[in-house]
Amino acid sequence: MASRFLRAIVATILAVLFETAVIAGCTLAAPNNAAPTFGMTCLAFAIVAFLAGRGPTSVMVAVGALELAFILPGEGFAVSDPDHAMGLIAVIATGVIMAWYVGRRDTLSALLAADVAASRQIAEWRGVAHSELAHRLSNDLSIMVSMAAIKARDATSAEARDALVDISGRLVVLGRVYQRLEVRDRDTQDAVAARQFLLDLCDDLQLSTLSVGSISLRADIAETLRLPVRTLSLLGLIANELLTNVRKHAFPDGDGGEVLLSLHRHAFRPDCAELIVTDNGVGFRRGDAKDRSGRSLLVMLASQIDGTIAYARISGTTVATLQFPVPSAVRNRAGDGLAGDAEPVPAIGSPTG
For residue range 62-115, what is the model confidence (pLDDT) as tens digits? Predict the structure, then answer.
């Protein structure tokens, strides 16, 4: 604080000396013409104002007005020549305006700096709060999965046991989605690469859900396709539900088979993407209540991203197709993938039969 005050005093003294030198030099150079003195004094005010700020400039204006009034003919500020009087008033007004302007500029700069510092502090606080929330959410999901698994083992009803196992599996997927996307407090339109996220999810499903029997899973995902965080998280849940249904209904006895998951831009609708899951299992049964329940859940999830889902049985292959729009903000970014821009990935899990 003391050093700042000392710097202000030194700047004020230097400003006054600079102004005195300017006025004295102009007066000696043109003793019979006050116009150069007025002009150079205004210029000196401007230079000091932008270099030293409001305080030194205000003192400089006051001292400069006294010096000019002393030099000009007349009694004090009662300058005898009207032109000199108007020039003196103009010089004082210029100095006052300069001091006001730089003072306003410095005030706005200080307010802006304070806002930036406050924003950084808030961002740091939110980052800490998010980390704590993420830790608690991860722990809560783990506890819920463990509780569901325990309840499933203790259940006496097969239906209750299956329901608890389904709930446990979906909670696990929610945990995967949360961890892999590393969700931050971001706008929902932030684009995330879809390929690696879905490949990792397929790896997990191959080791868990599809590990029973000799079911192999292949993935064919557009290399550069990017999707909003919210869309991709829901897409992960939909893919998990589709592949879980394949394991339950297409291969109910644990027989071997092949499953293909693909994600590309729609071939004829550039504003949409298409997720397709195909399998060579036994197919779906329309009268199965569990099958209807699973499809209802898929329809609900698809509606969250404005998508539609359809099923078909073609030449012994069951095809589930999800079509959904890609937001224009993401669609217009350079590098987005087009249909067919990636080669199919080799089988994630090889048949073990």
Answer: 888 888 877 777 665 666 677 777 887 888 888 888 888 888 888 888 889 889
The pLDDT > 70 percentage for the chain reads 79
- Contact of 189 with 329, CB cutoff 8 Å: yes
The tokens of 269 are what? 């609708």
Place of tokens 């849940």: 237
| CB proximity list for 339: less than 8 A, separation 6 or greater | 222, 264, 265, 266, 267, 274
The DSSP 8-state label assigned to residue 167 in this structure reads: H
Residue 82: its H or E element? helix 82-154
Q: Tokens standing for 139?
A: 């722990």
C-alpha closest to that of 195 among 180, 173, 184, 185 = 180
Residue type at position 149: A
**Cβ of 157: how many Cβ atoms within 10 Å?**
9
Q: How many CB atoms lie within 10 A of CB 338?
A: 15
CA–CA separation, 270 and 259 (whole Å) = 26
The residues near 241 (Cβ < 8 Å, ≥ 6 apart) are: 170, 294, 297, 298, 301
pTM over 0.85: no
Distance of CA 320 to the CA centre of its chain: 33
Amino acid at 188: T
Mean pLDDT across the chain: 78
Helices (H), 182-288: 194-207, 229-245
pLDDT single digits (tens) 179-194: 666 554 444 446 678 8
Angle among Cα 333, 338, 340 to the nearest 5 degrees reads 160
**Residue count (the chain):** 353
Q: What is the DSSP letter of 172?
A: H
Question: What distance in Å separates the CA atoms of residue 315 and residue 52, rounded to the nearest whole number?
Answer: 85
Q: The tokens of 47 are what?
A: 């230079």
64 closest CA partner among 82, 89, 86, 101:
89
